[in-house]
Design goal:
about 250 residues, alpha/beta, two-stranded parallel sheet
């Protein structure tokens, strides 16, 4: 288990119920601790707590991808830059804009120069309006090697911006509907990632369909659904306690 979750796993018999951020992690927990099946487990992801404001498809830059992330080694944005090099070798007019800040900034800038991508890949820095960033692009990228539940993926989907991501633990497989609101790519398979991007850039009908699918999928990330899930969990725990034998 993740280090932050080690205590819960070690003392799992003390809890009436355990909430996970993703269904994938919940399933892995039950596989690792089959004795835990007698306790209740729930998956309740974070919500996207803002109104969904669709933009017309024509307002998007159909030759642009974006990343919104902190600049940290765990995010492996250097992988995204390498992947985009493969893309621009075939599509020299496409662009990638990277928004965020952190310790890796200079590393990305140097990598972009080394790969001669200064006209294709841009480090934009911090933004306090990621929704506008997502609404402006054809799709977003995530190339992390580990996550808990990356809210930026739900944020992208809710703004009609499909997501291309490595299929890692945890998060992408719970958010992305593979082949409908984005793509899940085997970790470190840069060639496969680039192939998906190239095909997507070259097909505006596919872009329109994926964007529409993303907007249609947005309600499952709403605050209303989030609150209903927590209400269900709380009620289930109350029922469990009131029905338990005395002393349990």
């Amino acid at each position: 288990p993740q280090p932050y979750f080690a205590y819960v796993c070690a003392h799992r018999d003390r809890f009436d119920g355990i909430v996970f951020l993703t269904e994938a992690e919940r399933k892995d927990y039950l596989k690792k601790y089959p004795d835990a099946s007698r306790w209740s487990t729930f998956a309740i992801p974070h919500p996207y707590p803002h109104p969904v404001v669709p933009v017309d498809f024509s307002e998007r830059d159909h030759r642009k991808a974006v990343i919104v992330s902190r600049f940290d080694p765990v995010k492996r944005i250097d992988y995204a830059i390498d992947i985009f090099k493969l893309v621009t070798d075939q599509l020299p007019d496409v662009t990638l804009e990277i928004y965020g800040f952190g310790q890796e900034t200079n590393k990305y800038v140097e990598q972009i120069k080394k790969l001669r991508l200064t006209y294709n890949v841009f480090v934009r820095g911090f933004t306090d309006d990621p929704a506008s960033v997502f609404r402006s692009a054809a799709f977003s990228m995530m190339t992390s090697y580990v996550e808990g539940y990356p809210l930026t993926l739900a944020e992208s989907i809710c703004n009609g911006c499909p997501v291309f991501a490595f299929d890692i633990k945890y998060g992408p497989s719970d958010v992305i509907r593979d082949g409908r609101t984005g793509y899940l790519i085997p970790f470190k398979d840069h060639a496969a990632f680039a192939e998906k991007i190239i095909a997507y850039f070259e097909d505006e009908d596919l872009q329109r369909a994926f964007s529409e699918n993303a907007y249609a999928d947005a309600p499952r990330f709403s605050t209303d659904v989030f609150l209903k899930n927590w209400a269900f969990f709380t009620e289930a725990m109350v029922r469990r306690k009131t029905r338990a034998p005395q002393g349990v």
